[in-house]
Amino acid sequence: MMADRVAWTKYAGVKLEAPRSKYGAKPLVVDGFRFDSRREAARYRELRLLEKAGQIADLELQPHYPIVVVEVWRLMRSAEWVQIPGDSVIPLIDCGRYTADFQYRDKSTGAVVIEDVKSKPTRTTAYRLRKRLVEAIYGVKITEV
To answer: Model's pTM, two decimal places?
Structure first.
């Protein structure tokens, strides 16, 4: 099927192009890692320099945070119980996951820093909700760069 499309586009003089990103970002590959935007790739380069300078450690790309909440209304009558350490049993709902852009440890404070490279159009309502849920569940602060 693709061969037919290529043959037709050559015949019609149409140039095949990669689909445009929703927000117009251009992907870039740096050190073998693919970044969704030039801005994210630039931030990665800055963080690598900080890591080489010894100011940060344990740089991680695309860390995942599961968004799991307690089913309060079914606490007493659920058949789907989850065993957690300490012999307490509570029902949980898996609501998805949040993927940040970077996570690292700041050597001067010892704090774990979670960063997300965002432009104004990408700060959607869904993103803000996931960010607030992760901050509430894990007790962390997500920094937008």
So the answer is: 0.71
